[in-house]
Amino acid sequence: MASRKRGLPADNGEQDGPLVAPKQQQIRADGKGHTAAVILARGGSKGIPLKNIKMLAGVPLIGWVLRAAVDSDMFDSVWVSTDHDEIEKVAKSWGAKVHRRSAEVSRDSSSSLETIQEFARLNPDVDVICHIQATSPCLHPHHVKEALEMITLQGFDSVFSVVRRHQFRWKEVKKGSGEMTKPFNLDTANRPRRQDWDGELCENGSFYFATRDLLMNKGLMQGGKIGYYEMLPEYSVDIDVDIDWPVAEQRVLRYGYFGRDTPEVVRLMFCNVSGCLTEGRIFLSVSGEDMVSVNTRDAMGIRMLKGEEVEVVLLTSREDPVTKSLAEKLAKRMGCEVMEVGEEPQNDLKLVVEKKKLEWKDVAYMGNDKPDVNCLNLAGLSAVPGDAPTVAINAAKYTCHKVGGLGAVREFAEHILLQKQKAKAQMKQDRIDNSSF
What we know:
Layout: E1 35-40, E2 55-56, E3 59-60, H1 61-71, E4 77-82, H2 85-93, E5 97-100, H3 112-122, E6 128-133, H4 141-152, E7 158-165, E8 200-211, H5 212-217, E9 226-231, H6 244-255, E10 268-272, H7 273-277, E11 283-284, E12 290-291, H8 296-307, E13 311-317, H9 321-334, E14 337-341, H10 345-355, E15 363-366, H11 373-378, E16 381-384, H12 390-395, E17 398-399, H13 408-435
Family: Belongs to the CMP-NeuNAc synthase family.
Keywords: Nucleotidyltransferase, Transferase
Protein name: N-acylneuraminate cytidylyltransferase
């Protein structure tokens, strides 16, 4: 998770142009070596407005594939091609460079090939281009790594991703035509069982690799010596319409790529009281007392974390005596520690992290405003409520659907525990794999 928004070295995130990473160069037999990943993200989506930066499982949709591309260590540059200012901002925050596409390739009728060709003309040093689709959030680094090696090591001119489907296809007939339907891939007299049929390979739209020569001289994304890369069905998610969103979100939480750093080491959570556990509002009673409210679901979320041996520290501002009093009462009820922090929480919390002999990757942090930005960036897992300001959302690794005081803490707690569960399963699998040698 710590790799969520990591610009590549020597990149200040401001200047557009080739983003060259000091990583292992992929050298082809002809000596050329610049490989670029390009994600097309036009602002004028007809189905879902600004779909490419809509939050999916706490991350902008485009962020899932950008993280996989950057962490694959296979690309010399990673780009987002867009015509929209907000998409450009998100792309840069995730370590990508931006190709501002021209009006000619930003129309509803413009094809992906036309946009990729425009990018190639503007970047003549690029030898191999990987068109990654933003709507494939379960892409992992190893997928593009293994596919690219088919070009760099095996000499393919184009490689694209597929998934195996076991679906019988039938000819469509128009009503009233009198025509009868017939199967395309089925002998009805010998209908096979699923386990006796290999199925068919279908494009899943995750990515398309092509050489410069194929794109510019032959006008093709798929051609020459063609190869396919088969992905498992659980990773083949393609979001086209709004109804796909809740289904995709559950799939991503289970099968998505969350970064290089595994979250199983999270042992400590810092949580702001104001704006996270509370709505950030203070109520005045008839008698003149200050009051705030806490959602019981959030309190249960803290108990869930403690039950999984995650220490929880509630944070209050030295300038906010009301939330301090509330935090102390909650701490007594749930067995948490309360800590006062200054205007820059990192200065106070780094001492706690060091005292407990932890690293920031072992820490989860929940904040809700500008003073939390440094801690949100440092923590292995970090989150903000759904109503947090943009400056905090851009720094967080997870953005909750719920708002402060109304279930956001519970949501983040569930996210932390889900990642711990995934990490434990991976550790178990790693032990099995290692024991087989």
